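Memo subject: From amino acid sequence to discrete backbone structure tokens
Keywords: amino acid chain, backbone geometry, structure tokens, three-dimensional fold.
Body of memo: The sequence and its backbone structure tokens, given next.
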Amino acid sequence: MLRRSLLCCAVLIAAPAFAADEADALVAQSRTAVQSFGGQLKTALSEAIAAGGPVNGIAVCNEKAPGIAAQASAASGLDVARTSLKVRNPGNEPDAWERSMLEQFDARKAAGEPADTLEAHAIVEEDGVRTFRYMKAIPTAQLCLNCHGADLKPEVAAKIDALYPQDRARGYAAGDLRGAFTVRKVLAEN
């Protein structure tokens, strides 16, 4: 699955051959890609729920979200996805870097930072390959509570249980940190 500095400022694990302006360009490109992905996903969810209620919206995340992520990835040249500490789809489980960033996001939110401002980026080595990583927090919006809130309609809970028997993505309130958009781009092999 595709995934992945700001601890009050950006932390960049610098490599001599990678200039800061190149990192800035990748951050800007990542922001655009996740904004596109998030915007298209929200539109599709809103339309589906308006047309057939919250149960209809489940199909968007189950069936359409992977395609929307693939379109955002193809358009940007980045690998774009979503992850969370409490995933619904086991295929979206965070890797070690993502988990660390999500835990930092939780701590920063608990310290008073608004969830919608949380982001992180770094250049890391993954299996001997220099890789750019970026994450942008996803705050829980009112729309999300239809399927991720504490009080789900019985038909919504039943549909989620049928599609995702290992679901852990419930019990959120508006403004909670739902998860994050995550971006990865291989830079160069060492």
Observations:
- The longest helix spans residues 20-76.
- Strands lie at 79-83, 119-126, 129-139, 177-189.
